[in-house]
């Protein structure tokens, strides 16, 4: 499988006060979405965010959904292992006894994300959280009988934060407007149909707009692929003259 792995362990004691969860050796490759018993806690990110505060009760599930954000295919970073590649600590204690679940998300989306009704219920009938990784589904209907439809188009994500999108089971790619610069994704006409509603599946990893506004994506006729953004990362260079010389 490729893309996501879920790591789960149990809290060994109560953490009623905010307690530091730390990746001391920069061991989250590449981005982890943290929750405790379904309550979002924050994000750990390689080279950018190596610690967050969490709270929880003894016995609670500590979940880390770790995202593989890609790799370069040359030089010293060619063998770039993904997932949790070193220990995490909580209140200076090393976390152990992990359960690891590789997630075949493309296949799940292709099969319609089938699950039992009981699996969709939230504990204690609590309202759903819009800050946890979650799937959202919808449809796009294209009028039939009109010549030259469907055609190529583009899709944008007003109010969405970061995630991936599929149309009729085809993985279009990732969106992340805050980092940019690409604000739209290309939708080729050959994955669209006019004979039936087109299924749209969005995996939002951080926060969806559905709690405060209409939950939509937009199809537009022009791309927006060169937005201005500011990146404040301090990651080391992937390739430089000195690194090249070190391999000679």
Automatic annotation (TrEMBL):
Domain Beta-galactosidase 1-like first all-beta: from-to ranges: 1-104
A molecular-function term among this protein's GO annotations: hydrolase activity, hydrolyzing O-glycosyl compounds
InterPro entries: BetaGal1-like_ABD1, BetaGal_gal-bd, Galactose-bd-like_sf, Glycoside_Hdrlase_35
Species annotation: Alligator sinensis
Pfam families attached to this UniProt entry: BetaGal_ABD_1 (PF21317), BetaGal_gal-bd (PF21467)
Domain Beta-galactosidase galactose-binding: 133-193
Organism superkingdom: Eukaryota
Keywords (A to Z) from UniProt: Glycoprotein, Glycosidase, Hydrolase, Signal
Family that this chain belongs to: Belongs to the glycosyl hydrolase 35 family.
PANTHER family documented for this protein: BETA-GALACTOSIDASE RELATED (PTHR23421)
SUPFAM superfamilies associated with the record: Galactose-binding domain-like
UniProt protein name: Beta-galactosidase-like
Biological processes annotated in GO: carbohydrate metabolic process
tRNA processing recorded as keyword: no
């Amino acid at each position: 499988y490729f893309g996501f792995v879920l790591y789960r362990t149990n809290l060994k004691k109560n953490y009623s006060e905010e307690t530091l969860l730390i990746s001391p050796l920069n061991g989250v490759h590449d981005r982890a979405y943290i929750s405790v018993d379904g309550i979002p806690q924050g994000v750990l990110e390689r080279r950018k965010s190596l610690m967050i505060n969490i709270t929880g009760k003894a016995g609670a599930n500590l979940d880390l959904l770790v995202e593989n954000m890609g790799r370069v295919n040359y030089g010293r970073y060619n063998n770039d292992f993904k997932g949790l590649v070193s220990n995490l600590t909580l209140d200076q204690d090393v976390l152990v006894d992990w359960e690891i679940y590789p997630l075949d998300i493309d296949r799940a989306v292709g099969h319609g994300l089938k699950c039992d009704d009981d699996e969709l219920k939230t504990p204690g009938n609590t309202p759903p959280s819009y800050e946890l990784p979650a799937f959202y589904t919808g449809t796009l209907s294209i009028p039939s009988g009109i010549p030259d439809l469907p055609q190529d188009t583009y899709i944008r994500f007003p109010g969405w934060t970061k995630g991936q999108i599929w149309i009729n089971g085809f993985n279009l790619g990732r969106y992340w407007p805050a980092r940019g610069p690409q604000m739209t994704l290309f939708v080729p006409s050959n994955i669209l149909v006019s004979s039936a509603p087109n299924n749209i599946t969005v995996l939002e990893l951080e926060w969806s707009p559905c709690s405060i506004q209409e939950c939509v994506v937009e199809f537009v006729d022009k791309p927006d692929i060169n937005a201005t953004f500011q990146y404040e990362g301090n990651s080391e260079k992937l390739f430089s003259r000195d690194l090249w010389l070190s391999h000679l």
